[in-house]
Amino acid sequence: MNPRNLVGSALSLAQAQADEGDSPSLVHRSRSRHFVEALAGEFRTHYALQPSIRVLSKHFPGHRADFGLNELLFDVLVCDTSTVRSATDSATLVFVTRGLWAVESEFARDTRQAIFDFNKLVLASTDYKLFVGPQVADQSAFLEPLLPPAGKCGGEVFIALVPHPSEWTTGRSDVDVFQLRQTVWQAL
Q: Is 138 exposed, middle or buried (0-12, 13-18, 19+ CB in 10 A)?
């Protein structure tokens, strides 16, 4: 799965959604929500032929009956599942067998906010971690503080930088993707 294609497709889908809110901050929040759900949708499409793989996100209620909630720990969690019978009423219970992708997004243009969300990825035992943040004037300065926590992650770690939601009306849809390689961010 190519993170650039995944994020780029989700960005295009989110940018096509109607804006919601009567202030810039509410519009930006709704755009961010549309992006996260579009990204989760792209994962659902990718794994559609594998019914044991579930993609959980805050605004998708499709797995609420199995997990008791929509979102499980991350903005988007892609996980493999299995079932077991309950001890008392023979109900089927769904449990996570393996985490595939943990995704966190933060569109604030400062590394403090980025670190808050990136910390969650350090805790993830998924095969892949993806952080989505905003494109900024000095990408190197933004990415540098994320190296130490990324180095503490297991699995493969990616960062995708996309236009800030305030810039979506300009038609910008470029995506910059980086992968942690040893101790540096390598552009993909």
A: exposed
CA gap 10, 5 in Å, rounded: 8
Across the chain, where does the E strand assignment appear?
A: 53-57, 76-85, 92-105, 128-134, 156-162, 176-181, 184-187
**Residue range 145-167: mean pLDDT, rounded:** 94
Spatial contact of 132 and 103, defined as CB atoms under 8 Å apart:
yes
Q: Are 142 and 133 in contact (CB under 8 A)?
A: yes
Per the CB < 8 A criterion, the answer to whether 19 and 41 are in contact is no
Mean pLDDT score of the chain: 90
Q: What does the block give as tokens for 5?
A: 């294609």
Residue 162 and residue 36: Cα distance in Å, rounded?
Answer: 12
Q: Are 177 and 151 in contact (CB under 8 A)?
A: no
The span from the CA of 95 to the CA of 146, in Å, is 31
pTM, full prediction: 0.92
Dist. CA 161–CA 174, nearest whole Å: 9
Each residue of 103-155: pLDDT tens digit? 999 999 989 999 999 999 999 999 999 999 999 999 999 999 999 999 999 99
Measured between alpha carbons, how far is 13 from 38 in angstroms, rounded to an integer? 6
Q: How confident is the model at residue 67 (pLDDT cuts 50, 70, 90)?
A: low
